[in-house]
Amino acid sequence: MASTTIGWRGLHPQHRRWILINALLITAFVNLAINGLIAWFSIRSQHAVPIWGLPGPGKTNVMTDSLGTLFFLPFFTCATCTTAVWAQVRGGRLPRLEALAVPRRLAHGRLRRGAVLGAVTAALLSPIVIAVLAVAQLGSMSPTEFVVYKMVLGVALGAAVTPVIAVLALADHTDTALDAS
Questions:
Q1: Global pTM?
Q2: pLDDT at 77 over 60
Q3: Could you give the CA distance from residue 138 to residue 129 in angstroms, rounded to a whole number?
């Protein structure tokens, strides 16, 4: 019977290499660029970005943008990373991870898994983000500060969730998992 947990040393060397190169290094650069561009695009007409506020067209604020990132980054990362892992497993370039059983609520396709992981990530990390921003007592950020903040948030969050997503994708054991959306 497969385990529900596995340590770094329990991973095959090919899995560890893939996670280091793809799930950490490449993902860091992708998140740096994408989050920087999204941040710049969302505030390009603003002279300052308020920490708190109601979202609206042309009215980005740090809090709602951060909370959205906590859900959507894991969601989209799950869709793209899982697709990449499945393609490499299908092509024989990467072995499946046989030593791990995917929890049932995470075993129903990449979009559902992404939604669950996004919701869990947002639920766990939102209080921390809210507390940090409240303690910082900032009224607003400059556009440059906001873009840098979003880039750092994207890289840090990606480093936390992408290896988990990759391991779950590697551990999908049924052929239907490779065909599910």
A1: 0.86
A2: yes
A3: 13
